[in-house]
Amino acid sequence: MRFTLAAVSGAALTGAIVVPGGLLPATLQEQTPLSGPRLAHHIDPDDDAYWGPGLPAKDAVASSLGKTADRLAAAVDKALEVVEDARHVLADKLAHAMDGNGYQKHPSLTIYELIKHSEHTTKFAEIVDEHPGIVKLLNSTGTNYTLFAPTNEAFKDLPHGGEGKPGKHFVEAVLKYHIGLGEYPAWRILSTHTVPTALDERLLDGEPQRLRTSIGLGGVTVNFYSKVVAANFEATNGIVHGVNNILIPPPMAGRLISLFPSQFSTLLLAYEMTDFAKYMHSVKLVGGTVFAPTNNAFASLGLKANAFLFNTKAGRKYLAALLKYHISPNATLYSDAYYDNTRSGSDPEEDGLNTAHYNLPTLLDEARVRVTIVNWGPVSTIEVNGYSHVTVRDGLAKNGVIQAVDGVLIPSFKHSDPKKPDDTKGIEIEDLMERLAPYV
Ligand SMILES: *[C@@H]1O[C@H](CO)[C@@H](O)[C@H](O)[C@H]1NC(C)=O
Ligand SMILES: *[C@@H]1O[C@H](CO)[C@@H](O)[C@H](O)[C@H]1NC(C)=O
Ligand SMILES: *[C@@H]1O[C@H](CO)[C@@H](O)[C@H](O)[C@H]1NC(C)=O
């Protein structure tokens, strides 16, 4: 069912919000079967009450979202292949894109004046003008910002007319989410994975919500779906990059996972079978990291272990324990930033310039996960417990971050190193039970 929106500039922003969770490109909007009241629910920025799976895996929407997830995964794989040398090529490409767009540099103007001045950002500037606080922010010279300004192009597919204008509060949050804290010219973005924004997130204890940047041969992409189409416009108080899609603050972690059944249908099934959403609603969290095993990760446990976990009554309890082990409460670990709200406050161990080790708590009492992050320019590798790898990094959520992993994490025996399940045979049920026994 298609619905319409008021043809006012504020409402224009909702066009990209129509998708549940809002992390998807505008082209998928029309396939989203949300009605007006549900939409209102979906875009309520204060809506915290969501964890569990949302979309049934078999409907058309879910499958098109699944395809998007596949493309995202492929794009991420590509990004990982970018080697040091290629960075220069990319920098050239960016510089080129910047020259060829008919933009002009105005180093004597503020960011606010720059977007008012440019014929490519008139629609965005119009919305900014309705929010004096944002005008002030972008025109103040006390602090430097990086604005990811949606070009007029970004507004072109938005539906017009009708009801459903989002609240001012929400639009303001969206605007703030386009404003990076500090100066991130293109060269710096090349070695950045996430950028803090002016949007303070209550669910992250007031820390800045972040944008995810990635680099592929097509240039820089923000949050998987918005491309930097023109880079490096200098202002007196920072930098402006033009992007071709509106950036929407991320949804709750549970909802985000439910958008990608082609990667996570087994995990979603596990959540459902263990009534995990209900459990999560009872846990008090200030941010967190969800290590989300992909379908392949579950498959590599082997048939026997999966049959035990999913098809037996006894296995259900072990499955619940396993799921808890994949969540680090109050520890929001991005590939290049860490919001630590655990009271244990253990600092990461630095290991040379590029490597850091973290020892994170989990929802499984004292069982911890060990994370090693190696950052090298645009490339980052994240290893968990020594045998599982993050395949899609930094899935931003309102209440934390999702790191997709290619192996199911299993707590080790006390005092012994975590062991990788045998690749060919999976894990023995006895082994699985023994390792989870203290937590069941
Ligand atoms: C923006 O700042 C400039 C000086 O930095 C000032 O001249 C101008 O009036 C300000 N504009 C607004 C709308 O506040
Ligand atoms: C903002 O950036 C400019 C140019 O890089 C620099 O000279 C200035 O000191 C910065 N201002 C602040 C407040 O950081
Ligand atoms: C997370 O932090 C909050 C605030 O400090 C605390 O109340 C809560 O118990 C913590 N949650 C867990 C699971 O440690």
Description:
Residues 108-247, 251-409 form the FAS1 domain. This is Stabilin-2. Pfam families: Fasciclin. By secondary structure, the protein is of the alpha+beta class. The chain folds into 2 domains: 104-243, Roll (FAS1 domain); 253-439, FAS1 domain, CATH 2.30.180.10. 32% of the residues lie in helices and 23% in strands. The longest helix is centred in the first third of the chain and has 22 residues, at 60-81. The structure holds 2-acetamido-2-deoxy-beta-D-glucopyranose (3 copies). One 2-acetamido-2-deoxy-beta-D-glucopyranose is lined by residues 283-286, 329-330, 341. One 2-acetamido-2-deoxy-beta-D-glucopyranose binds at residues 143-144, 183.
User: Tell me about the biggest sheet?
Assistant: 8 strands, mixed
Question: What percent of residues are in strands?
Answer: 15-25%
What's the β-strand tally?
A: 17
| CATH H-level superfamily title of the largest domain | FAS1 domain
Mean pLDDT: 78
- CATH C-level class of the largest domain: Mainly Beta
Give the C-alpha Rg.
Answer: 22 Å
Can you name the CATH architecture of the largest domain?
A: Roll
Total domain count: 2
Apparent shape = elongated
Which runs of at least 5 residues are low in confidence (pLDDT < 50)?
A: 1-88, 97-104
Cofactors and ligands present? 2-acetamido-2-deoxy-beta-D-glucopyranose
**Side-by-side strand order of the widest sheet:** 9-8-17-16-15-14-13-12
What distance separates the N and C termini? 45 Å
Structural class: alpha+beta
CATH topology of the largest domain: FAS1 domain
Helix content: 25-40%
Helix tally equals 16
InterPro entries: Adhesion/Biosynth-related, FAS1_dom_sf, FAS1_domain
Domain FAS1: 108-247, 251-409
Protein name: Stabilin-2
